[in-house]
Design a protein that fits this description.
Rossmann fold, 3 domains, alpha/beta
Length: about 650
């Protein structure tokens, strides 16, 4: 470990017992970490200088959330950021990690090299407060996929060894094979899930690790053990750790090399526990015996409950400004070493291929286990198939059954497409994981959309196949294997378009109830302008020439109808004229009458009457594919701009 790493020291005499207990506990942290890749630099230092950030409000104009915050953290050191609610802790972490852009004049440097959002993503990992994971993956699988998405040049054995290190260090051995958990399947506890989130950040070999409330949901002992594990890894591998933390115990606090107290966006104190005791005494508010220094400092700077603390705040600000000037004068500028990437080039073609493969594999595992992805929907499709097969059973070739056949095709397209909204919860989970991993620079929206599309296709095709097998011959649609496979293909394209529409809505409106309502409305709207309830040519001209031809259900319904009716002959038994001639439900053409007589109507006659007869099936299928492609491109665009 570098000599530049400062050890925490007791602030008052009574703490030496606690520190000794902390040291002994640190030695008992599970596992021993092996030396990291030689690409990690030694002697690294991160400098965050003059960080200010403000937002625009209607009432108050510009509201400054951060005001000239500066801090310097060396490799292996841990910085704790504390403060009352609204002090700017999470905002500071976002600015330090380049997720928010500070005001002009700010500097973020690693070894003297300036960092921006792109380069920060290459060297840093951020562990957020939300524990977004795939609920059906186990603890080991979750951490392993994070490792595979981020590392380069490591064998499977090396990755597995790294995953085992992290699992052991974070005390997750007992639940390594347990699933994270879903709304319908209980998994690990909240505290274990928090440790899994920390593990996904550590396993990627970060140079800088940002932690937002890493101990939330943990009891005091578990919180100290987790932070002790992070400290061991940080000092072993030279990781710079910056963490916001809420109400740490004295045991946990002593693991940090320095702490920062924020108040109204400004630094009220920065330094060690020992320095905190000195500072409090300087401003006339000494730390009472047996009191946690962080609790005492937070009490001094908190103004949420109406206390007038302007005097003590001014004194703390002034003392901190003097200390900052003295520190800069004494320490000077660190010359550092060159900034080198230890992750693979994330713009390379090989990286994108690798990521697509890993994401596709993870999607297969997720979809095959997650009932909310396709399990529930497959059950719904089978249920609807059973209803159609038993209600429209053996329609036959009577002209009175022609409208029933059209109803089958309408239900097949419209209602099955409507059920695509059942996939929204699974996609929202997918989206949350994507956003977390994207923010950490693991991959972008293009690999995500490609992997999602590739794995959606076989699962959705399986759903369409089960439905088609159940209904096609039970209802008695156009005989022949070729006609069946065309029915299956057209139905699948309709379901794929509906599926893409649902995930597009969920990406645009990532709130389950709102996305569900909007997707349901859109499917209902497409039903109205499709051409079944009211014939297309009877629609008002605006709806006919606009949304009727934008509707994927229009093309799918007409394709299914033409595939079924073309080539069939229907007997006209519905009514007899006084002359004894037949009166068919649909008018027969002169050619049909000349060839078969007046008591037969051909499927082509029906199609011509409905104005479906002249459609080019290949062109309509191509339009359906085009709609799917447009929806998928729109999905990419939405995810690209949803940072």
């Amino acid at each position: 470990m570098s000599s530049s790493v400062q050890q925490s020291q007791p602030a008052v005499g009574e703490w030496h017992v606690l520190e000794e207990r902390t040291t002994n506990a640190s030695n008992s942290v599970h596992g021993t970490l092996d030396k990291m890749s030689d690409t990690i630099e030694r002697g690294s230092v991160a400098e965050f200088s003059h960080l200010s950030y403000e937002i625009k409000t209607k009432k108050e104009g510009a509201l400054r959330l951060l005001d000239n915050v500066s801090v310097r953290v060396r490799q292996g050191e841990m910085l704790a950021i504390l403060g009352p609610s609204g002090a700017g802790k999470s905002t500071l972490l976002d600015v330090m990690s380049c997720r928010k852009k500070p005001l002009d004049g700010a500097e973020i440097l690693l070894n003297g090299r300036s960092l921006n959002a792109e380069t920060m993503a290459d060297v840093a990992s951020v562990v957020e407060q939300e524990d977004d994971h795939y609920g059906v993956l186990t603890v080991r699988e979750t951490i392993a996929y994070a490792a595979r998405l981020s590392t380069s040049g490591f064998s499977k054995a090396q990755i597995d060894h790294r995953v085992d290190e992290i699992i052991t260090a974070l005390g997750l051995q007992s639940c390594a094979g347990v699933k994270i958990g879903t709304p319908i399947q209980r998994g690990v506890s909240g505290g274990q899930k928090r440790r899994v989130t920390v593990g996904t950040g550590l396993v990627t070999y970060p140079r800088i690790l940002f932690l937002d409330e890493p101990t939330s949901g943990l009891d005091s002992f578990s919180a100290r053990e987790v932070m002790a594990s992070i400290q061991r890894i940080a000092r072993k591998e030279g990781i710079i750790v910056v963490a916001t933390i809420h109400a740490p115990s004295i045991d946990t606090l002593q693991l940090f090399d320095q702490m920062m107290i924020l108040a109204k966006g400004k630094v009220a104190f920065q330094g060690s526990l020992e320095a905190a005791a000195v500072r409090c005494a300087e401003v006339g508010r000494p730390i009472p015996e047996y009191t946690n220094p962080s609790d005492h400092l937070l009490h001094l700077v908190s103004t949420d409950f109406g206390d007038d603390k302007s005097a003590v705040l001014d004194a703390l600000y002034a003392a901190q400004d003097r200390e900052a000037v003295a520190t800069r004068t004494a320490e000077g500028k660190d010359d550092g070493q060159a900034l080198e990437r230890h992750h693979m080039d994330r713009k390379s073609f090989g990286h994108h291929l690798k990521v697509i493969g890993v994401l596709s594999e993870r999607n297969v595992v997720n979809y095959s286990r997650n009932l909310l992805a396709y399990g529930v929907r497959m059950g719904m499709y089978l249920g609807m198939g059973f209803l159609l097969a038993t209600i429209w059973i053996r329609l036959g070739l009577s002209d009175s059954k022609i409208n029933d056949r059209l109803s089958v095709h309408f239900f097949s397209v419209a209602f099955l497409a409507f059920m695509s909204v059942a996939g929204i919860p699974a996609f929202l989970e997918e989206r949350s994981v994507f956003l977390r991993e994207r923010k950490n620079g693991l991959y972008g929206p293009l690999p995500f959309v490609i992997a999602n599309t590739l794995i959606t296709i076989p699962f959705l095709f399986a759903c369409a196949l089960l439905f088609a097998v159940m209904v096609y011959w039970s209802i008695g649609l156009h005989p022949g294997a070729g006609k069946f496979f065309q029915f299956l293909a057209y139905l699948f394209l309709a379901l794929l378009a509906a599926e893409t529409q649902s995930v597009l809505v969920a990406a645009l409106v990532p709130i389950f109830i709102a996305a569900l309502a909007l997707a349901a409305f859109m499917n209902g709207f497409w039903m109205c302008v499709q051409g079944y309830f009211i014939r297309g040519r009877s629609l008002p001209r605006f709806w006919y020439y606009s949304f009727h031809f934008m509707d994927y259900q229009t093309y799918a319904f007409e394709l299914l109808a033409k595939n079924d009716l073309k080539g069939l002959l229907f007997n006209c038994n519905s009514a007899k004229l006084p002359s004894g001639d037949c009166m068919c439900t649909y008018p027969a053409s002169n050619a049909t009458i000349a060839q078969y007589g007046q008591c037969v109507v051909s499927g082509q006659d029906v199609l011509d009457y409905l104005e479906f007869g002249g459609i080019l099936m290949g062109a309509y299928a191509g339009i359906l594919i085009g709609i799917v492609v447009i929806y998928r491109v729109a999905l990419y665009v939405i995810l690209y701009f949803r940072r």
